[in-house]
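I had to read the description of the data format several times before I understood it. In essence, backbone conformation is discretised, so a fold becomes a row of integers matching the chain in length. I therefore recommend that a typical entry be quoted early in the introduction. For illustration, here is how one protein appears when written out as sequence plus structure tokens.

***
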Amino acid sequence: MSGDAIKEFKQVRIQRVSGQHNEVDSDAVTCEAEVLLRLNGERYGLFHCLPTNLEELARGHLTSEGVCSSHEIEEIKSRRDGKKYVIEASIVGCNAKLNRINTTIKISTADVWTAVKKLNEHSVLFAKTGDAHIAAILSKTNSVFAEDTSRHYAIGKAIGLATQRAINLNESILAASCRQTASTIRKAIYCQIPIVISTSAVTSLAIQSAHKYIVTLIGFAREGRFNVYCHKERILGLD
């Protein structure tokens, strides 16, 4: 997307209060923007997100929400329109389905810790503002990372970046700093991602969907421990 450089965060004036003391100070906040997605010329939805990687966001959103499969996307372009941003996407057909995931991928417990370490290392916006989720697609040969104020958009951007770089999602890991719910685990299922690692909690419906569609679901991967909620057979060395 051409135009002025996009700021991910900015400094704002605040009154900082600590106990009985207060002072004028500044704080870093994320630069959230309105982003309109138009699909085949029609208004599809309005996103409130970080205005970066917008074309990847649209690609990841459309495929991970089951609107279409990746090969049904003809073109995606984004532009700035005043204070708003517009994404124009063209697709043909709509054949995306929820299918059980069949893959031979295996990982070790060390791979889980490596994924968490990489998430922490790439959480640049969170370190500055405390207001960002991070998601990653990790394969044996390549990795992509995306931060956003919304967990759904962070995951969508990571999937879009991975698709753009021809990373095989069926042989990859989705790692994220956010909780896994029915809506986020469905994104992995639509995109045929076999392993999901979260540093946060998982919900009962996330477990139910992961079990049904054969997703290895890992939660609370932090502080030297993690929980495997279903399909532990993809993790080497577990009883």
User: Anything to note?
Assistant: Residues 151-164 form the longest helix (14 residues). Residues 19 and 238 are 49 Å apart (CA to CA). The radius of gyration is 19 Å.
